[in-house]
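User: hey, got a sec? need Alpha/beta hydrolase folded
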Amino acid sequence: MEIMTPRGPARADVDEGDDARLLLVLTHGSAGGVDAPDLLAVREAALGVGAAVARVTQAFRVAGARAPGSAERQDEAWLAVLGELRARWPGLPLVQGGRSNGARVACRTARAAGAVAVVALAFPLHPPGRPERSRAEELRGAGVDVLVVNGDRDPFGVPDAADATRLVVLPGEGHDLKKRPAEVGEVVADWLTRYLG
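Assistant: Yep! Here you go:
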């Protein structure tokens, strides 16, 4: 489905079972798409525990841009998408998340969106080789429960366990989390069960 935002149209690929009890909205990183192996694995696992799942291609990507632009504009467009999706599933608890840059967006907007939790896949703690430019404050500022799933070989760093409600570090995984995506899906599905309405 296409959703108009203040930054142009975004697109949501929606999957739902017969009796959805939670809405999970996921998005991509700044360079990837919604068909990343970890996002697909999370979709499958979430459907299995009773979630409706929307994978959102953000407006900047639909417009053909290679970079998301300012955080303010990206967040504004994201909140518009969430408003439309929540109207389609009124009353369901919302968990939002994404991978990399999408995880940052989810953390920054969680309270404004009314989310009960965030799923942060491959949260980019800092630019590669620049640990002094930490983004940990985005995790701490989410204001809701945050699950972080990172690989121990991620050049963007691994957040501190104190900055998330739960941190899962997968051995041998890099930033793409593509070696064992089913494991990523299982971790997320287990986390989601606490929020099922």
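Quick note: The domain at 2-195 is CATH 3.40.50.1820 (Rossmann fold). Let me know if you need anything else on Alpha/beta hydrolase.
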